[in-house]
UniProtKB/TrEMBL annotation:
One of its GO terms (biological process) is lipid transport. SMART domains: AAI. This is Bifunctional inhibitor/plant lipid transfer protein/seed storage helical domain-containing protein. It comes from Daucus carota subsp. sativus. Residues 1-26 form the signal peptide. InterPro entries: Bifun_inhib/LTP/seed_sf, Bifunc_inhib/LTP/seed_store, Plant_nsLTP. The keyword Repressor does not apply.
Amino acid sequence: MAKIVYLTMVFATFLAAFLMVEQGEAFTCGTTLQERTKQLCDPFHRGEQQDPSAECCNSLKAFRDTAKTREERIELCRCVQDRSNRNRAGVPAPDARVPKIDALPAKCGLPFIYSADRKFDCNTVN
């Protein structure tokens, strides 16, 4: 009888822990989704398109949705700043791209969360 009670308690503990964890991936910088978003949105960032494509906006929304907590949104901000201010070879990118990157959420109908400008303090993100 004690063994049944013990196993029931262990099962209940695991079930409670499982239900408390949010389903889905936590935000991480450098993911495939982030790289895909950058690739899809680069034509807009470089000024080759007046407006971002639907694929770019959908990918941006999915990428931003992975940052669920304030801490993850702060990390998202730092990630975007870091990646936006370097090209693929790690060379500093021109600051001229920052306004285009910052305009992207509004063009995609998403709220402003952060700026790609290095002067923006990511710790102010809610």
